[in-house]
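Exercise 7b. C-alpha cells:
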C-alpha cells in the first residue's frame, strides 16, 4: 500500500513536470528563433555617420579603427554600396538592387570626411553621400572647405544639402524653411557645378512644409532619421536612417538585419548599466 501511494504521488508530480518542460522548451526555442532570426527582406540599411577621427572625442565621433573595421566587414561579406540615385530608383521604380545593399551617409560636412573617410572609401571602392551644412564652409576649421567639397564631388562622392544653419526645420516658419533649403542648394551647386538632388533634415526633423518646399525646389528626395530600414513603401521625402555607433555588434545587427547581434549588444549594454549602478 505504501509503495502504491509513492508511485501515485511520483506519477502526479511527473504529470506536472511535462507541461512545465514543454513550456520551457517552447520559451527557449522562441528566444533562439528571435535571436537568430535574420530578415531576408528587401529592407535596406541606410546608415548615418557624422565624424570619423583617430580618437573618440564626442558622441557623434566614430574612431577610424572602427570605421575601417566596418568597411572591411562590408567588403569581405559581399555588401554593395548604393548611391542615393540607385536607392530612389529602387524605391520609386522597383529597379533591382543587390540583396546585400547598404547606403552610407555622412552628416554636417566635417573636415575628417575628406581627411579620413574619403581615402578609406576609395580604398574599399565604396560610394557615399555627404550632407553639408553650408554656413560652415571655409568659416570653421573643423568643417569642409570649398576646395575639398569640389574634389569630393569630382571623385564621385555625392554632395547633399544639410541646410544653411542646421536649425530644426519643423520649428521654422515657411519662409525661413524655404531660405534654409534654397540657399544651401544654391551654394553647393555653385561649388560642385552640378545639381544638388538630395537633402538631410537636421536632427531628422521635418514637417509637411519641409517636404513641400523640398519638392518645389527640385530636390528628388530627403532623408530623416527614424531608425528604421528603408524599402519600397518608404516616404521618399523622409527616408529613414540608422545611426552607426562605436560598437560592432550594433553595426552588424543593423547591416545584417539580424537580431542575434542586436540582442548581444543590448545585453552587454544592460550589464554595463547595472555595473555602473553598483
Ligand atoms: Zn546634422
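Sequence design result:
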Amino acid at each position: 500500500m505504501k509503495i502504491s501511494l509513492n508511485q501515485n504521488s511520483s506519477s502526479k508530480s511527473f504529470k506536472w513536470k511535462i507541461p512545465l518542460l514543454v513550456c520551457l522548451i517552447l520559451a527557449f526555442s522562441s528566444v533562439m528563433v528571435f535571436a537568430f532570426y535574420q530578415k531576408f527582406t528587401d529592407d535596406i540599411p541606410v546608415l548615418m555617420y557624422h565624424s570619423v577621427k583617430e580618437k573618440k572625442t564626442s558622441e557623434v565621433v566614430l574612431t577610424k579603427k572602427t570605421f575601417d573595421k566596418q568597411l572591411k566587414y562590408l567588403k569581405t561579406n559581399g555588401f554593395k554600396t548604393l548611391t542615393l540615385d540607385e536607392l530612389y530608383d529602387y524605391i520609386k521604380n522597383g529597379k533591382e538592387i543587390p540583396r546585400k545593399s547598404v547606403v552610407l551617409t555622412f552628416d554636417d560636412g566635417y573636415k575628417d570626411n575628406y581627411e579620413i573617410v574619403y581615402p578609406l572609401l576609395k580604398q574599399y571602392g565604396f560610394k557615399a553621400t555627404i550632407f553639408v551644412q553650408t554656413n560652415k564652409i571655409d568659416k570653421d576649421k573643423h568643417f569642409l572647405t570649398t576646395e575639398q567639397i569640389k574634389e569630393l564631388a569630382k571623385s564621385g562622392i555625392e554632395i547633399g544639402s544639410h541646410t544653411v544653419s542646421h536649425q530644426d526645420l519643423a520649428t521654422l516658419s515657411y519662409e525661413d524653411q524655404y531660405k534654409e533649403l534654397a540657399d544651401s542648394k544654391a551654394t553647393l551647386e555653385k561649388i560642385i557645378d552640378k545639381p544638388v538632388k538630395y537633402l538631410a533634415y537636421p536632427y531628422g526633423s521635418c514637417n509637411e512644409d519641409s517636404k513641400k518646399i523640398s519638392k518645389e525646389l527640385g530636390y528628388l528626395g530627403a532623408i530623416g532619421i527614424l531608425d528604421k530600414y528603408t524599402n519600397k513603401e518608404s516616404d521618399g521625402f523622409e527616408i529613414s536612417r540608422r545611426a552607426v555607433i562605436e560598437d560592432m555588434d550594433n553595426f552588424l545587427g543593423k547591416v545584417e538585419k539580424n537580431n542575434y547581434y542586436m540582442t548581444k549588444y543590448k545585453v552587454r549594454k544592460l550589464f554595463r548599466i547595472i555595473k555602473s549602478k553598483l
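Instructor comment: Residues 107-108, 162, 166, 202 surround zinc ion (CB under 6 Å). The two ends are 56 Å apart (CA to CA).
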